[in-house]
């Protein structure tokens, strides 16, 4: 499936080919530690176990403060 | 995944179960309020200053202190937000803009202190100048000294008896590990939900209501509450020792859940012994800096030492 992902820390929006099932697997594919981000879809916060669907638009928000 | 307390969709999975939006907010607020009560962080007669950067932690702690005062029916004479503008272009101006908006929403007075007005240099100018003499100068060290100096001085000058900070469990676990790695046992004795060894009228007591809240929980709370927190990164953030410790602990936490909480629990267990040991090693009296008159543990305080290093015939008059 193809997802649209916005990575806040890099201010980068990109299309991602994804063959996994859930948020945790997506973060592993993107080499992002789940501990340092919150993932949202349509402004709804998702847990790591949430199942993703093709054409989902996701935002990966940084937990770590900028300072 | 659904909330373990109701059928609504979960927003976070914690060690004791998943929580939905409303149950998470209640869990988070209960944790902060019980920390305040357990450690007596706020007393009815306190005049309160909240050290604010404009980020998620300071907005959250400012909001929850207000909520706590309301819930406990404590009518404090003074509650204000105290911000330090160190002068970091492209960073602090943005977080202070968020903070101004937030303080207007919360109807809390905001006092902003400029490092440039106080010391004659912005942090950007200071580090540029100091690095001409010594390329290893660390901006985070100067920033930390300036911030601690200014928040204490101006909290006291505005009549505060408590200085509340937004330090969270991640910050504190990092500090514990940093101090162990660097064998700074004296600094360790100053840590905990209430900061400092000395009780002195020149030091405003610093307290940390978010002490048991992880950074992720705090971010989630601020997000769910819709606080105006934009993402902006300090240009110096990756240069610090702390950033390496933070990344290491987050890697560990991801692999072994509860690592950071374990560090804090262990630290609180040994803290009384560390404090007792340190009491034997330090003099009881606080020294006043011979140059500026502010309290410290040496004849010349760290802020004045930085001033001296910045002073030469090419520098602006401080």
Description of the structure:
The complex is a heterodimer of chains A (67) and B (318). Chain A contains 1 helix and 5 strands; from the N terminus they run ββαβββ. Chain A is mainly beta and 67 residues long. Chain A has one domain: Beta-grasp domain (Ubiquitin-like (UB roll), Roll). Chain A has a 5-stranded mixed sheet, with no helix packed on it. In chain A, a hairpin with a 2-residue loop joins β3 and β4. The model of chain A has no long low-confidence stretch (mean pLDDT 93). Chain B has 2 domains: 38 residues, no CATH class; 242 residues, 3-Layer(aba) Sandwich (Rossmann fold), CATH 3.40.50. Chain B is 50% helix and 12% strand. Chain B has 12 helices and 10 strands. In chain B, the strands form 3 sheets. A 6-stranded mixed sheet of chain B has the order 5-4-3-6-8-7, with helices on both faces. A two-stranded antiparallel sheet of chain B has the order 1-2. A two-stranded antiparallel ribbon of chain B has the order 9-10. In chain B, α1 packs across α9, α2 crosses α9 and α7 packs across α11. The longest helix of chain B has 23 residues. Chain B is globular and about 65 Å long. The C terminus of chain B is likely disordered. The interface between A and B is medium-sized, with 20 and 30 residues.
């Amino acid at each position: 499936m193809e997802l649209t992902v916005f990575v806040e820390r890099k201010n980068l929006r990109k299309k991602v080919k994804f063959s996994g099932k859930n948020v945790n697997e997506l973060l592993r594919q993107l080499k992002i530690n789940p501990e340092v981000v919150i993932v949202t879809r349509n402004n709804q916060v998702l847990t790591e176990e949430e199942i993703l669907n093709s054409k989902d638009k996701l935002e990966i928000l940084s937990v770590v403060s900028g300072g | 995944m659904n909330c373990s307390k109701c059928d609504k969709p979960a927003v976070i999975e914690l060690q004791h179960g998943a929580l939905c939006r409303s149950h998470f907010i209640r869990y988070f607020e209960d944790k902060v309020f019980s920390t305040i009560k357990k450690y007596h962080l706020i007393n009815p007669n306190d005049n309160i200053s909240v050290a604010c950067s404009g980020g998620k932690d300071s907005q959250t702690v400012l909001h929850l202190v207000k909520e706590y005062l309301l819930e406990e029916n404590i009518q404090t004479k003074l509650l204000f937000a105290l911000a330090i503008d160190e002068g970091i272009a492209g960073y602090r101006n943005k977080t202070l803009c968020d903070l101004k908006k937030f303080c207007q929403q919360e109807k809390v007075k905001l006092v902003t202190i400029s490092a440039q007005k106080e010391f004659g240099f912005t942090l950007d100018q200071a580090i540029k100048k100091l690095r001409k003499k010594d390329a290893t100068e660390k901006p985070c060290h100067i920033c930390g000294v300036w911030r601690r100096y200014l928040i204490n001085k101006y909290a006291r000058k505005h009549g505060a008896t408590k200085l509340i900070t937004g330090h969270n469990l991640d910050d504190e676990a990092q500090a514990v590990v940093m101090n162990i790695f660097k064998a700074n046992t004296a600094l360790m004795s100053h840590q905990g939900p209430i900061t400092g060894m000395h009780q002195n009228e020149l030091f405003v007591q610093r307290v940390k209501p978010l002490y048991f809240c992880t950074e992720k929980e705090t971010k989630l709370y601020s997000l769910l509450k819709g606080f105006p927190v934009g993402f902006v990164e300090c240009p110096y953030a990756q240069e610090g020792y702390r950033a390496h410790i933070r990344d290491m602990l987050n890697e560990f936490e991801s692999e072994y859940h509860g690592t950071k909480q374990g560090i804090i629990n262990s630290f609180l267990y040994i803290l009384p012994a560390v404090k007792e040991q340190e009491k034997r090693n330090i003099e009881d009296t606080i020294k006043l800096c011979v140059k500026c008159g502010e309290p410290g543990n040496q004849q010349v305080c760290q802020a004045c030492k930085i001033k001296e290093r910045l002073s030469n015939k090419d520098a602006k008059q401080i």
